[in-house]
Fold this protein.
Amino acid sequence: MLRLVKKFIQAVLPGVIKPLHSLWNELLGFLFLALAVMLVRPVWRNYHEIEGDPAQFIKFLLSAIFFLTMLGFGLHAFWKARRISRS
């Protein structure tokens, strides 16, 4: 009986975990891309407010780095979800 349960788990578990893993990466990708989209306006506003002020330039630089990081994480998560679903 224990052997049958073990065979069942080995047969069913990969078919359940793989789509869940892909879905998890897609949800994370959506979250990161949503954060990146919300940062477009502050980055644009900080860019136009620089005018030689070092504090404004630092605000722009930090917001741009955060935007690029969220965009990169989002794209990477979708790419990883695609790799998981294709394997």
